[in-house]
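User: hey, got a sec? need AsnC family transcriptional regulator folded
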Amino acid sequence: MVDIDKFDRQILRLLQVDGRMSNQDLADAIGLSPSPCLRRVRALEDAGIIIGYRALVDAKALGLSLMALIHISMDQHTPERFDHFEASIADIPEVIECLLITGQSADYQLKVAVRDMDAYQELLLNKINRITGVTGVHSSFILRRVVSKTALAIAEN
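Assistant: Yep! Here you go:
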C-alpha cells in the first residue's frame, strides 16, 4: 500500500468522477499549481494506483439490451483448468467481467452484454458451454441497474 496524502486523495476522487478533467482544472479544484498537480497524477499512475482511463459506454445505445450474470461451475479445481477457462473467457467479447468467487456453488461469475435472447443462447451454447471443464451454468438476467459505480470510496486518513 502506497502512502497518499490529502491532495492525492482529492485527485483520485475528482479523476474517478471525470477522468478527462484537465490538469489546470484539477489543480484549481485541489488548490495546487499545475506542475505539482501533474507530478502527483504521474506518481499515482507510476505507483499503480491509477491504472487507466476509460470511456463509459451505454450498452443499450449500442443495441446490447440484454445483460446477464452467469455462474459457472468447473469440473476440476486445478490451476491448469482455471488458467484454461480464464484464457478462453478473456477471448469472448460479450464478457465484460469475470470474477473467481467463493461462497457459492459456482467457481466464476460472469457479467455479459448481448443484443437479445437469441444472442445469449448463441453465446451460452456455442462459446461458454464449449470451454473444457465447464460443468454447470446458472443464469440470472439483469432487469434494472439500481446502483452503478466505477468510483471507489477513498478514506480521508
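Quick note: The longest strand covers residues 66-74. Let me know if you need anything else on AsnC family transcriptional regulator.
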